[in-house]
Amino acid sequence: xxxxxxxxxxxxxxxxxxxxxxxxxxxxxxxxxxxxxxxxxxxxxxxxxxxxxxxxxxxxxxxxxxxxxxxxxxxxxxxxxxxxxxxxxxxxxxxxxxxxxxxxxxxxxxxxxxxxxxxxxxxxxxxxxxxxxxxxxxxxxxxxxxxxxxxxxxxxxxxxxxxxxxxxxxxxxxxxxxxxxxxxxxxxxxxxxxxxxxxxxxxxxxxxxxxxxxxxxxxxxxxxxxxxxxxxxxxxxxxxxxxxxxxxxxxxxxxxxxxxxxxxxxxxxxxxxxxxxxxxxxxxxxxxxxxxxxxxxxxxxxxxxxxxxxxxxxxxxxxxxxxxxxxxxxxxxxxxxxxxxxxxxxxxxxxxxxxxxxxxxxxxxxxxxxxxxxxxxxxxxxxxxxxxxxxxxxxxxxxxxxxxxxxxxxxxxxxxxxxxxxxxxxxxxxxxxxxxxxxxxxxxxxxxxxxxxxxxxxxxxxxxxxxxxxxxxxxxxxxxxxxxxxxxxxxxxxxxxxxxxxxxxxxxxxxxxxxxxxxxxxxxxxxxxxxxxxxxxxxxxxxxxxxxxxxxxxxxxxxxxxxxxxxxxxxxxxxxxxxxxxxxxxxxxxxxxxxxxxxxxxxxxxxxxxxxxxxxxxxxxxxxxxxxxxxxxxxxxxxxxxxxxxxxxxxxxxxxxxxxxxxxxxxxxxxxxxxxxxxxxxxxxxxxxxxxxxxxxxxxxxxxxxxxxxxxxxxxxxxxxxxxxxxxxxxxxxxxxxxxxxxxxxxxxxxxxxxxxxxxxxxxxxxxxxxxxxxxxxxxxxxxxxxxxxxxxxxxxxxxxxxxxxxxxxxxxxxxxxxxxxxxxxxxxxxxxxxxxxxxxxxxxxxxxxxxxxxxxxxxxxxxxxxxxxxxxxxxxxxxxxxxxxxxxxxxxxxxxxxxxxxxxxxxxxxxxxxxxxxxxxxxxxxxxxxxxxxxxxxxxxxxxxxxxxxxxxxxxxxxxxxxxxxxxxxxxxxxxxxxxxxxxxxxxxxxxxxxxxxxxxxxxxxxxxxxxxxxxxxxxxxxxxxxxxxxxxxxxxxxxxxxxxxxxxxxxxxxxxxxxxxxxxxxxxxxxxxxxxxxxxxxxxxxxxxxxxxxxxx
Length: 1099
Prior knowledge:
Elements: H1 30-38, H2 68-73, H3 94-97, H4 131-135, H5 149-153, H6 161-170, H7 179-191, H8 194-198, H9 200-234, H10 243-252, H11 254-289, H12 297-318, H13 320-346, H14 351-355, H15 363-370, H16 380-387, H17 407-436, H18 459-462, H19 485-489, H20 493-524, H21 545-559, H22 564-592, H23 606-623, H24 625-645, H25 654-671, E1 684-686, H26 695-705, E2 711-718, H27 721-741, E3 747-753, H28 756-766, E4 776-780, H29 790-805, E5 809-814, H30 822-867, H31 893-899, E6 909-914, H32 922-932, E7 939-946, H33 952-965, E8 972-976, H34 985-995, H35 1007-1016, H36 1023-1028, H37 1030-1046, E9 1052-1056, H38 1067-1078, E10 1084-1088
Parallel strand pairs: 1-2, 1-4, 2-3, 4-5, 6-7, 6-9, 7-8, 9-10
Antiparallel strand pairs: 5-10
Helix pairs in contact: 7-13, 7-17, 7-20, 9-16, 9-17, 9-22, 9-23, 10-11, 10-20, 10-22, 11-12, 11-20, 11-21, 11-22, 11-24, 12-13, 12-20, 12-21, 13-17, 13-20, 15-17, 20-21, 22-23, 22-24, 22-25, 23-24, 28-29, 29-38, 37-38
């Protein structure tokens, strides 16, 4: 099929034609314009679905009639194709106009695929055209396959998308649940647990109806606030598997998420034991009634609990689908049991039930039971601690968030409705049982009132029964004594037993599913490396079978305790810690004011969430203070561990947002404070290029800026702007990451410029923020200045002039071997690449061996022999030191050693400070800061100053006094009186030979020739210039002699940097001064401050 490239193919030629599909083309020709003007019909508009990922990339609406033209245009669901390849950005074909808005552009329309994460299970990620694609000049010879124009124009179809699509297809068979089956049912079943049937009556007996309602209300306040916070968090983006762990970790970061994730998963595992023990208690009570005990009550609970948890494990391992079906059946049984209880309260009681304390609804019983009657050892908070686990089921739906169709909609809706329904049920049961059953009853039908007996206000006595002996001896019935009160009250007792079984088993099943799911999500994030084994999932639902068995082991251990009242407080503290962090997550995200915090669930308040978090923490200590302390100690330990390990994840947490806000506020606040000399600190721009290429330069600068000042590693990209910007942008993140990995507290900045000096000038002016602006430029000494092109020397000396113009201090660092190790890094990179290729080849061969069997293995051994593949040697440290094992001829071994010299601890020695000129004190401050560092603390300061030969002692005393006022410790002070003495002839001859190639020697030539040479080589050193600054040249040569004499053994020399007056000192002469001054010496820092005080002796 082919398409006519004429722009009139799809135009309506006459108004009467109603069989055309409705696509009006903006035609660029005059004929088309005329045709459009003649058409009397109002304009029709194309309907396009830009988000569809179906077979067709666009959807077209038709006018009434047949679709012949459309069928000619699209056949078998394929996109229209031309008979030849057309340009992706061609605006002359009608297919083009069906792609976007009719503009000649590759701009993509908004689509959800552009915003997905790579590997998203909800669909493939598509890469939109980059800014370069739509901004740079369009390439003329772009070849696009037929039929792919709409793909290219909309920025679709990257090669990596196929994997994501395949992954989505793999997940297609997974079972997903809606909000009712996935959240509401699970939460209701988990909340209506063991407490509803076998503890709520006891709680009412102990606390009374009034305090019982308050206990339920306090629990509901905690869970409701947590539910609101959780709803806000989970509607602020797509929620994956992991429940509470996922919500907390993505909100507060891996440190909080990783610590609470383990605790929460463990709490769910222990909850399995709690619910199973509740179930076993009920079974044991039934065995007691029928006198069918196996051993004794405690051991029977252990036996029945163990058998039960094995069966539950089997249901869980069978898959989520079976587990969900079981939950629905259990819910139906549970609802029938609850209804059976309420029906039983209105069925007239018989003599047997009255003897056990049940008298139907009685005002006297309600009044008697309204107040508390705590037994020995019990109180409000101890009773609350027993009840609170009944409210912990609110996360049952969130815990399987990965198995929900739409977690953002299902979790808030299902959780909040479940809280409401279960709260009504709890309150109803508590009030009804408190109004029907007395606290103590003997169970004997003969304990009736004797005529003339004084009741003393007893409700049972008023109703004809005497239970007074329960005050002196234990009784078996009544709210305080009989845990099976609800079974007695109900219309049909066995239904309550079935309800108990249903409630306990469903809660245990939900917890048994939740714990492995949360634990699997935690392990998948690889926060704890040792737990990676449990991350693996099996089957279409990615079931965490390994996690199931771990949960089973934990549950079995706690089942052996067999005491429900011992287990419940432990659960309370773990769940409360989780609830506290969920509430705090919501508060923290709101407080950070990140633009990314946009929850769809709007019924929340940050201060209410904070109140919820504080309430949870308070309740933890009230319930059991030592358990709360243990919980927080464990959480704190895990937090410190995760913080120390620094997992390589970035979830855009609110902690990051708050750090940004805090940094921004502090930076703004700092701008309101005037600079003070006492707070001066070196804030350095270091011209390292890529920070890994000149590590020694960065190390020495970092030594005096770490934890005290700003350090910015700067790189200037010189060359064609387009290439430079591309290279610069591609390396920014990598180079900053290198600084972080090597624990260097510095920033990386780069600029693209036409020349090196322009780039540095831009950095000097624009770097920094507010008061955090650089005040010192640190550069390496240009060792190859004699062989360098003229422009490089002009740029190098020029940036020193520019720094002084901007009133920025300058530090020039010289070491014997130089700084640049880029060639060494290149060799290392190539070797690593070869090693990776070799390992990849070996892996491929092993895969082929395993696939082809014995015959294939023999054949591949032959191939391997030809390839001469050896076993990989274990890789040592990946730092620069690994290169030392390479052949010496491949690089300069001394250069590598020199590049690490400032990383090593400096032994006992000296830092010699030659304070020849007063620059404000920077030359003294830098070495002082160095002596505070661990690597330099064994080095003592020796101070060298110039002075008159007849006043050496006086000037030494004066300098010592000044240093003591500055509170700078020193080992010795030397006053040099012979600095201005002429250097010896050998030294001067070396200097003259050094500058010889750059001298003009115009005095030896006639005037015309001299003028011509000046015009042709203005950069050369003239005889007049040499004569004018001869004394200064003498001084540089003489200083080198003195340095050789006094400081040859120093660990570091810090020396006043000579300043070249602009227009007076040529660049080559200045470089010769620096060369002769620092020649054949230990590492040298040439320092010149901006001549503003950086030291003060005032307090």
